[in-house]
Structures are given as C-alpha cells and as structure tokens.
Amino acid sequence: MTDALYTTDILRLAADVPRLDRLDAPDYHARKVSPICGSRVDVDIKITDGIVSDYGQAVRACALGQAAASIMGAQAIGLPLEDFPSIAEHMAAFLKGDVQDPPRAFRAAHVFAPAKTYKSRHASILLPFQAMTDIAQKAAAAAPAA
C-alpha cells in the first residue's frame, strides 16, 4: 500500500538533502516536530533586506520529511521571507487536493501528489514549510513599527 507513496523521485530527494549544516549565528531558527511520527527539522536562516540569504538545516525525519527538506533547502535562498506563510498554506492546500499545483517556487513538490490520500503523512511533508512560517512570524514580530 505504501509502495506508491515512496516513489523513486521522493527517495532520490530524501537521499540528497542540501544545506544539511546548521548556520553559525543565524538571524532566526525554528524547530518543527511531527506529533504523529516524531520527524523533526531544525531550520536556521540569515536574512538580507527581507530576502533569505542563507539557509541551513538539521533533519531527522522519514523519507517524506527528508524529501520536503531537500526541496526547501534547494529553493529557499533568494525568496522573500514574508512569502513563506502563504507558501505553506498553498502547500497544505495542494496536499489536501484543494489546489492542483504546489507553490510556484516549489514546483518540485509535485512529487508529493501520491501523498494526497495519506493524510497522516502530510505533517511530515509540511515540517520545513511550517518552520519557515514560524521564522517569518518571528521576523515580523521583531520588525520595528513603521
């Protein structure tokens, strides 16, 4: 039953996760843990003018969580930090089947289409997206009032 879930593309991404080193002196950090399976990601970022300028992560997760971390590690740098809450919402909507495509900057997340019917696995896939949302919210709260 789960053979269809762990596709070659997902396993390939899980085996080659970029940016697996934590950052020295990150501007922000977030840890997210899946309550269902215990998968965990720690994300560190540096920000320059509101743009993610460096990204590091530690990943202790199932193949789905590792694949999601792989996609995030490959795509996060260069994106506006403020975009991540909507990116995470879009990704969750994609997994629920509410939208056809994953977020534009994360088109590689199409590999998770088979996971749409495995709702218990969505939490692992969303971990890096939720970590970036937490960081965006921390940064917004720390920003000086205009």
Summarize the structure.
This protein is α+β, with helices and mostly antiparallel strands.
Percent helix range: 25-40%
Tally of separate helices: 4
**Shape, per Cα inertia axes:** globular
Assess the beta-strand content as a share of residues. Answer: 15-25%
In which order are the strands of the major sheet placed? 1-2-3
Radius of gyration over C-alpha positions, nearest whole angstrom: 15 Å
Structural class: alpha+beta
Number of strands: 3
- Amino- and carboxy-terminal Cα gap: 53 Å
Uncertain residue ranges: none
Tell me what you see in this structure.
The protein has 146 residues and is α+β, with helices and mostly antiparallel strands. It has four helices and three strands. Helix 1 crosses helix 2 and helix 2 runs parallel beside helix 4. The longest helix has 21 residues, at 122-142. The radius of gyration is 15 Å and the shape is globular. It starts with 7 loop residues before the first helix and ends with a helix.
Question: What is the topology?
Answer:
Blueprint: H1 8-15, E1 28-33, E2 40-48, E3 51-60, H2 63-75, H3 84-96, H4 122-142
Antiparallel strand pairs: 1-2, 2-3
Helix pairs in contact: 1-2, 2-4, 3-4
List keywords for this structure.
alpha+beta, 146 residues, 3 strands, three-stranded antiparallel β-sheet, globular, single chain, 38% helix
